[in-house]
Amino acid sequence: MPNDQVQPPRDQVQPPRDQAQPPNDHAEPGDRDRQPRDASGPLGALRTGRLGRRLPQLYAGLALYGVSMALMIRGDLGLDPWDVFHQGLAVRMPLSFGTIVILVSLVVLLAWIPLRQWPGLGTVSNALLVGVAVDLTLAVLPAPDPLAARIAFMLGGVVLNAVATAAYIGARLGPGPRDGLMTGLVGRTGGSVRVVRTSIEVVVLAIGWLLGGTVGVGTVVYALGIGPLVHALLPRLTVPTRPGPRLPEPSRIASGP
Question: Which residues pair with 246 in a beta bridge?
Fold first, then answer.
């Protein structure tokens, strides 16, 4: 029996291949799992594996970061911008240097809220543990008298700080509070990492110096040396993770002034 129903032309039956297809709300769970997911949530970075290396590296990096800060304090030749600010507050308040570091970290984390930044495990650990590490180191590390020893403390602090920074950023478990503030402002303002980071550090350096923090040759050495050192070390200490949630690029976090 002949089929009298008019058939549409073939080019109307098949949509063009380059036409965007609507999302498939009935996709299988396995298909959805293969789609990129945002790792900005508190537990996102934990889903990408290799925690057996990443967790020890994170906590070793944070401990070394506190030690590096203590070395520069005992060297007494100038601190990095944020530590000038911390020291200035410690001069004015009856609190230890490490306690000030923790309190400032928590205040900075509050600034993440309007920036819609999510702290990771590394972020919270950074906020709480670096201050403890610096206080413990200061309790057992005497201040040297000879200038040569003070210079060695200062240079050792800068190099160790670079190693520690590359280690905790390379663990990819969340940026520190201050780095997250910088990346959040970059995302919101559209400015460059270099300009935003430099602007923040100039402000905290000026306030810290006015409060009584130590600015000196160590401040300059840190400003000139930390960026190149971290960039040299970061590729060696960044832990590859399996495909899954999108993680912040460590090089973006570590871009120095």
Answer: 38
Q: What share of the chain is helix, strand, coil (3-state, %, to 5)?
A: 65, 0, 30
Q: Which two tokens stand for residue 96?
A: 């230890």
| Pair 175, 186: CB distance under 8 Å | no
Residues 6+ apart with CB under 8 A from 184: 111, 112, 115, 116, 117
* Residue pLDDT tens, the chain, 257 long: 444 444 544 444 444 444 444 444 444 433 333 333 344 455 556 666 677 888 999 999 999 999 999 999 999 999 999 999 999 999 999 999 999 999 999 999 999 988 888 888 899 999 999 999 999 999 999 999 999 999 999 999 999 999 999 999 998 888 899 988 888 888 888 888 888 888 999 999 999 999 999 999 999 999 999 989 999 999 999 988 765 545 455 555 554 43
Bridge partners, residue 245, by sequence:
37
Which residue bears the tokens 């206080």?
Answer: 135
> Any residues with CB less than 8 A from the CB of 95 and at least 6 apart, and which?
89, 103
CB 59 within 8 A of CB 172: no
Directed axis angle between helix 51-75 and helix 147-170, to 10°? Answer: 160
How many other CB atoms are there within 10 angstroms of residue 37's CB atom?
Answer: 15
